[in-house]
Amino acid sequence: MSIYRIASGGWKLDFRTSEIRTSGDKPLRVTRVFNTKTQALHAQAELKKQVEAAKLNNLGIFNPQATIGQLIEKWWQECEETKVPESRKKISKIYAKTDDHREKSRKNAWVKSSIGQTKLIDLRVSKLERWINTRRDDDVSESTIRNDLSILSRLFRYMKKKWRYQIDNIVDIALQEVGHSNKRDRRLTPAEHRKILSIFEQLEQAQKYAHTRKAADPNYRIIIPATGGNKIDLMPHQSLLYARAAYAAAIECAMRRGKLFEICWSWISWSSTGDESVIVVPDQRQGPENKAVPALVPMSPTLHKILIELRGPQRIGAALDEPIFGSLLPDHAYRLLKTICEKLEIPDFRWHDLRHEACSRLADRGWTTQQIQRVSGHKTLQSLERYTHVDISVVHQLYKRDATRAKQEQQTETMTGTHN
């Protein structure tokens, strides 16, 4: 190892070691340039300290030149190869849930991000804070930011526990600056619902004839007029055939977006009348304890009708394993609804609000929170309360209904007393 002056006037640290304590590790070599010799000496001392600690405790010596993205991929691969208990409750929080679509999307986003391209030795809390502020500028909720950062936090815990790296979890420091999302009370007005549904219907119809239009014009695009001269301009895609049904189903079943788009035809248990049809969620697909869905999700008559229309002829064999919304992916559905709302000038509405809307509509009909919980799968009634926003007009209607019932009961008692 050496420190020497370079032509530019700075100081270069060339640190090398052949000590290997973990199979598969490459010899450690770090070369960095500093403005002052003091900075180079400080970095050299820190590296020596890490190497000596590794030798003393027979631990692995990490490669600071590895990028965060490379470390995420290595962690992910090890988790895929590691045999974990069947019960998700017992899986350590340092493991990656490699079978979870949303978790995989977050992992891929980190690998491609500026943080993912950053070397481990160069990652600082300040860089994470800048990333957090950028996400906030993009109108991403605090809860989503926390969920994204949790991937990195678990990576750092895994590096320390499984790879035995002598490293501090700076992600947890950055997480202290991230709050929790405020309670949302955004309801979808009848007019907004009709506008959104109309756009989805027009997109579906346009896609049905897109192949003939495409044959005549290879550059054909689907263009739907919206509000105030805005236009929805999209490339034709098969997924548009399922968007209307997915939107309507989300309002009916109150299911989280990720789980809704996991549903396969084999999960559907049909009843002859449709009154008792249910979605049977396999044990291994019910999700982690804090966000688990019920094993049996009752289907409303409207949802039953939507799925019957989607299914078409009876599905058998391999067709049962196909997702009910075909090629439409959850992220695509999210972006599509966001685009439609922007073009219709419908403010502050996103896909997750459909879950709020579904719970609130059940509450409007007079369902108890326990009954709604049986459909939505909320773990606690307290968490469910964040999702139910009953319209005040509904409360007045309930008062009138109770008053009418009381009057009818009084009339019945009077008539009974008269006859006696």
Describe the structure using short key phrases.
420 residues, mainly alpha, DNA polymerase, domain 1, hpI Integrase, Chain A, 3-stranded antiparallel β-sheet, 16 helices, 8 strands, elongated
Describe the structure in your own words.
- It is a single chain.
- The protein is mainly α.
- The protein has three domains: about 1-55, no CATH class; about 70-175, DNA polymerase, domain 1 (Orthogonal Bundle); about 190-390, hpI Integrase, Chain A (Orthogonal Bundle), CATH 1.10.443.
- It has helices spanning about 35-55, 70-80, 100-110, 125-135, 140-160, 170-175, 190-210, 210-215, 240-255, 255-260, 300-310, 330-345, 355-365, 370-375, 380-385, 390-420, and strands at about 1-5, 10-15, 30-35, 220-225, 230-235, 270, 280, 295-300.
- The strands form three sheets. The chain has a three-stranded antiparallel sheet, covered by helices on one side.
- α7 runs antiparallel to α9.
- The N and C termini lie far apart (about 110 Å).
Give a short overview.
This protein is mainly alpha-helical and 420 residues long. The protein has helices at residues 37-57, 68-81, 101-112, 125-137, 142-161, 170-175, 190-208, 210-216, 240-253, 257-260, 301-311, 330-343, 353-364, 369-376, 381-385, 392-419, and strands spanning 2-5, 11-17, 28-34, 222-225, 231-234, 268-269, 278-280, 296-298.
